[in-house]
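Something for you to look into today, if you have time. Could you write out one complete protein record for me, on any chain you like? The space below this message is yours for that.
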Amino acid sequence: MDHIKLLPDHIANQIAAGEVVQRPASIVKELLENAIDAKATSIRLIAKEGGILLVQIIDNGVGMSVTDARMCWERHATSKISNADDLFKLKSFGFRGEALASIAAIAHVEMKTRRAEDEIGTQIKIEGSKVTDQSNVATPIGTQFSIKNLFYNVPARRNFLKSVPVEMRHIIDEFTRVAMPHHQLTMSLYHNEKEVFDLKPSDAANRIAELMSKKNTTDFLNVAENHDLVIVNGFVGKPEIAKRTRGEQFLFVNNRFIKDAYLNHAITSAYDQLIAKDQFPMYALFLTIAPERIDVNIHPTKTEIKFDDERAIYALVKSAVRKALGQYTAMPELEFADKNVFNPVAFLNKETVHTQSPEIKTNKSYNPFAAEQQWKQVQISQWHKIFDTNTDQKENTHTFISSDNEAQNEILNLQHEPVDFEVLLLSSGYLATNRNGHFLIIDQRAAHERILFEKYCQNIVYRSASVQQLLFPRTIELSKTDYALAHEILDDIKDLGFDVADFGTNCLIINGVPAETMKGNEKELLEGLLESYKHNSASFAGDKRKALALSMAQNEAILRTRILEKEEQIELINQLFKCESPALRPNGKPVYIEFTNQRISDFFQ
C-alpha cells in the first residue's frame, strides 16, 4: 500500500502561508512593497482591530490587466524575474510570487485594479484560495486590496494572534520600515478610522524625524560615504540620546529593511566609549550596493541578506559612522564672554591682542577628607570583628584604605580600637554587614531594586498602589510605537499607581502618579517606564506585569553613588531580608555576595 500522497493545492497553500503570513503586519509588509514595485506615488493603509478584521491597501500604481489580475493569485506567478540569474539582479522588493497566494489561502480577499489605458477595471474575490467572483468594476487607476477575517479557516493560527494593541504595534513597525526609505512618496495609515500617519513627500531627515516622532532633526548626525563597493548614507543619533532598547535602529540595503547583527555590531562599535555598554544608539542608515553583490533569497521574509564581501562592508560602515561621530565630538561648542580671550585670526596675523587671563579662585582651607559623615568605613585590621555580634562598644570611624601600599601599612600598624560592624560602607554603593555569622557585601541599588520589584508586583496583583493626584494634569505626546505600547499595557500601568488616560492622537493625560515615586517629573517617569518595559518585556516570557514591575523598580531604585545615612542602611538591609528572594535581582544577577569563616580563611591558605 502506498503512503505518500500529493497534497491538494489549498492545503499546500495554507502550509506555505505559515512562512509568509505570520500576523496582519506580514500582509501589510507584502502589500506595501507590491505597491512600491507598481510605481505608486500615493499609498493608503487602513486597518481595523489591529488588522485582524481588515487590512486595506490603496495605491495609484500602474494597475493590472484582466489576465494579470487573475494570474497574480497563483503560486510562483511573478512579473519580477524570468530565470534564476535574475535573482542576482533584483531591483524590486517581491520576486518569489508567493505572497498573494499565501494571503488568499487564509483570508477573505477582494482586489480591484485598473490600468491607465483601460476604461474599466477588474474585481477579484477569493475565499480560502477559491475564486468566488471575477467581474468588471469601476475603480480608479491603481490597485486596491482588502484582506478580511485573517486565519478564518485556520482557527489554531488565529488563536495565536495577540491583542489588538500588540498587532497594531507590529503594523506600525512595518509601515515605518517601508515609509522611511521612500520619503518621496505620500503615505498614510489609519486604524479604526483614526489617523496614525499622514506623510507628505519630504527629504530623508524630516521623514525619519516624523516617523520617530522627533520634534526636529538637531539630534541627527549626517552620514555620507561613497565607495566603489557600497554607498553609505543616512543619519545616526548623538551619543547623548542613546537608549536602552533597539527601537530606533533601522538599516536598509537598496531601500530594503534588513536585520543584520554583524552590521549592527559595526555601527554600535563605532560608539565605543561614547555610550554605556547597555545602551543602543539611534540610527537610520541606507546602503546602496550593486544587486549582483548581494543575495536576498535566503529567508521567507526577505529581511536577511548575504554579502559577497561582508568584512569590507563592515569596515566601511563602521568607518562612515565613526567619521560622523568624530566630526561631532571633535568640535565642542565653546562660548567666551570676552571675545579677546581667544582670537585665532589675530594670532595667525601676528597682531597684538590684549588677552584677559582667566581668574582662578581656590579655597586653601578645603579638605576633601574632612567629610567623615559621608564615608563611614573601617580599618582593614579590624575585619575579623565583623563576626563579633556581642560587642557593646561603639565604633571609631576610619577612612577606607584603597591602595595596596596603604593597606599594608595599615595592617602593620595594627591599631586595636573597638569598631561597631553592624553596617559598614565599603565603597560607593556597597554595604557590608554580618548575618548569622556570615560576612555579606551588598549592592545597595540591587537590594533596593529587589525590594521595589516585589512591592510593585503586589501593587499590580492586589491593585493596592496609592495615587498622588496632580494639581495640574500633564499631557505628554508619545511616538506612534510608544503610544500603541502604552495602550497595550494601560490597565497595568494604572495598577502601578498612575492615573492616566487617552487624550487624542498619540497623547496621554496624566492626572496622578504613584505616591511613593522619588525622582523624575511625570513625563520622564512615564516615558522611562515605557522605555524600560520594552527592554524587559522579553525577559518574562509574556508576563507583562512582572516586566512592568521590574521597569518601575529600575527607574526608582537608588543610585550607587548616593550615600545613605546609617539608619537608611539598616532599614534597607532589613527590608531586603523580608523579601521572598533577597539573594537575586529580578534579572537573576546577585544582590550580595556571602563569605563564611571558612571561605575567608581559604583565601589566605
